């Protein structure tokens, strides 16, 4: 069987199984099995697959048909141009979170240019370390705390921090939200759980069956964990600093009310994702 024939066959099988982006998923598995890039795969479509390659592909596709996410099968996910290791201990970074990161980086660079000193930043609920690593890569003057309540997740984050040689600039810390943060932060970025508890079972099988639900479960109203963070934020934010939150659709009004109570005078801005949903809340703290 050639690479082209295999791709055609398994794209069809994945489509029939109701798997989204079937062709892209098949390409990812083929690239992983053959240890080739996508361009190399498409440059040699008539390549005959060996018996060993077909056996490996059979194992990989069986896992995908059980709705295991491709990123867990390959152990890789690209986020904001950064190659990350991921496994079921951490949530797979989403493209919509890049909106959050981009806004935080823009603020961070402007802050450093204005203040001419090292920025203290925190990625709360770091998971794989994706946000912390992206911030460190683009705000070179920042010292970043990567915090998570899950020790298992922090093992993955530490692996990714070391992979990108950022151990000197990212401090991986186990803790519940901001409880271990003893300095006032100039920047806090948080992608915390915001799915309503009753909606979890309706998520795609890849998510509900395989990803860590504690990283998704936002309680009855979806904002329980975010509200807990905001309650702690008043004593942890430096004047003129900023807090960037990823939020769920329709959660902005409730959260804005809370922000105005705990961080009065803050400048609040909503930023839409590519689907036009208010996905990121930017909170610039008064006093700067």
Blueprint (SSEs and pairs):
Blueprint: H1 3-16, H2 22-34, H3 38-43, H4 51-65, H5 70-74, E1 76-79, E2 82-85, H6 97-115, E3 119-124, H7 130-138, E4 142-148, H8 151-163, E5 170-174, E6 185-190, H9 205-208, H10 224-233, E7 237-246, H11 252-262, E8 267-272, E9 278-284
Parallel strand pairs: 3-4, 3-6, 4-5, 6-7
Antiparallel strand pairs: 1-2, 7-9, 8-9
Helix pairs in contact: 1-2, 2-4, 6-7, 10-11
Would you mind describing this structure in some detail?
- This protein has 288 residues and is an alpha/beta fold.
- It has two domains: 3-66; 97-284, Rossmann fold.
- It is 41% helix and 19% strand.
- It contains eleven helices and nine strands.
- It has helices at 3-16, 22-34, 38-43, 51-65, 70-74, 97-115, 130-138, 151-163, 205-208, 224-233, 252-262; strands at residues 76-79, 82-85, 119-124, 142-148, 170-174, 185-190, 237-246, 267-272, 278-284.
- A seven-stranded mixed sheet has the order 5-4-3-6-7-9-8, sandwiched between helices.
- β3, α7 and β4 (142-148) form a beta-alpha-beta unit.
- The longest helix is centred in the middle third of the chain and has 19 residues, at 97-115.
- It is elongated and about 65 Å long.
- The chain starts with a helix and ends with a strand.
- The model has no long low-confidence stretch (mean pLDDT 95).
């Amino acid at each position: 069987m050639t690479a082209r024939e295999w791709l055609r066959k398994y794209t069809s099988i994945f489509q029939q199984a109701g798997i989204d982006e079937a062709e892209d998923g098949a390409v990812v598995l083929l690239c992983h099995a053959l240890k080739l890039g996508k361009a190399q795969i498409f440059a040699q479509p008539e390549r005959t697959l060996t018996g060993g390659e077909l056996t490996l592909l059979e194992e990989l596709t069986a896992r995908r048909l059980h709705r295991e996410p491709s990123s867990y099968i390959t152990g890789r996910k690209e986020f904001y141009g950064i190659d990350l290791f991921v496994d079921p201990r951490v949530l797979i970074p989403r493209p919509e979170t890049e909106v959050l990161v981009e806004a935080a980086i823009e603020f961070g660079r402007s802050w450093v240019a204005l203040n001419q000193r090292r920025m203290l930043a925190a990625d709360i609920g770091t998971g794989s370390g994706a946000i912390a690593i992206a911030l460190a890569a683009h705000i070179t003057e920042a010292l970043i705390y990567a915090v998570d309540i899950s020790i298992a997740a922090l093992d993955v984050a530490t692996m990714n921090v070391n992979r990108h040689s950022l151990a000197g600039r990212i401090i991986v810390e186990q803790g519940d939200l901001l409880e271990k943060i003893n300095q006032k932060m100039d920047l806090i970025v948080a992608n915390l759980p915001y799915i309503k508890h009753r909606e979890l079972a309706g998520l795609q099988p890849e998510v509900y069956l395989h990803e860590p639900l504690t990283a998704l479960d936002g309680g009855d109203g979806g904002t329980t964990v975010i509200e807990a963070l905001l309650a702690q934020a008043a004593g942890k934010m430096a004047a003129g600093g900023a807090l960037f939150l990823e939020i769920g659709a329709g959660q902005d009004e409730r959260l804005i009310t809370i922000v105005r109570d705990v961080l009065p005078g803050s400048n609040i801005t909503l930023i839409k994702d590519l689907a036009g949903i208010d996905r990121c809340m930017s909170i610039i703290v008064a006093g700067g």
